[in-house]
Amino acid sequence: MNGKRTLGFLVIVWGILMSIPMSSGSRAKDFRVGYFQVSPHVMRDRNGEAKGLAVDYFLRIAEKMGLSDTRFKWLPLQRLVGALQHNQVDMALLLARNPEREAVFVYPRQPFCRARPGIAVPAAHGIETIESIDPLLTLSIQVSAGAYRSAFIQDPRIHLEPMHGDDYTPRCFLKLRRNRIDGCYQPDHYALLFEANKSTYRSRIRILTLPEPPIGLYSVFSRKSAASYLQSYEAALAEVVREISYEDLFRELIQRNAPE
C-alpha cells in the first residue's frame, strides 16, 4: 500500500508541476529568431553567425526578457515568412507590416524602429528631391522580389525590376555602379545610407526619400510563440527604447564608419 500511495503522490506532484507556467528563464532556453540579410541590421559573418545593429539591439531586449539562449537562424525572405507561419522559428527579427502578414502573424504594438522608404539614384540623373511620381517615370528601378513595397512605389506607371536572392542592397548598388539600372528602391533608408556610406561610389549617389510617411519595422511573432513571449517583449522593448533609440545607435554606427 505504501508503494502505491507514494506512486500516487508522485503522479499528483508531477501533474501540479506540469500545470505551472514556465518562468521567463525556463522559456528562454531555446528562443529561435529567424532573419534575412539586410545591412546594417543583420548580416552573417564568416562563420555564419548573425551580426549587425538589429542583432545587438535585440540582445539588449532579450536580456531584459530573461532569455538566456537566443538562437539566430538565417533564411531567405520567403522561406523566413513560411518558417514563421509554421512555427519553425519563434520570431522574425525584422519585418514590415502589410495585411497579408497581419492575417497570420502577431505584431507588437511598438515597432523595433521606423524607416523612410527611399531610392538611391546616380547624381548624374540630376534628381535632387522626389515630390511626385514624375521624376521616376523614365527610370528603371530595382526592387527586392517578394519584399515589402510602400504605397508610392506600387504605382503601376513605375517600371520595376525585381531582384531575387538575399542581401539585396549591396547587389543592387553594384548594378547601379555599372549603370545596369537607374535606381535602387528600399523601404528602409537605413540600408541605403549604410551602403552609400561605405561605397567608394558615394559621391556619385544620391539617397532620396519618397513623399510618404515612415514605416515601422517590427520583430514579428508566430501565433504560437506570441502567447509566451509577446507581453515580455513589449515591456522589454519599451525599456530599451527609453535607454537608447535604434536611430541613435545607427547614427553612432555611421559616424564610426564615416570615411576620413
From TrEMBL:
Q: Does Signal count among this protein's keywords?
A: yes
Q: Which SUPFAM superfamilies does the UniProt entry name for this protein?
A: Periplasmic binding protein-like II
Sorted UniProt keywords: Signal
Coiled-coil segments: none
Keyword Lyase assigned to the entry: answer is: no
Domain Solute-binding protein family 3/N-terminal, by residue range, is: 30-257
Query: This protein is called what?
Result: Solute-binding protein family 3/N-terminal domain-containing protein
Which organism does this sequence originate in? Desulfosarcina alkanivorans
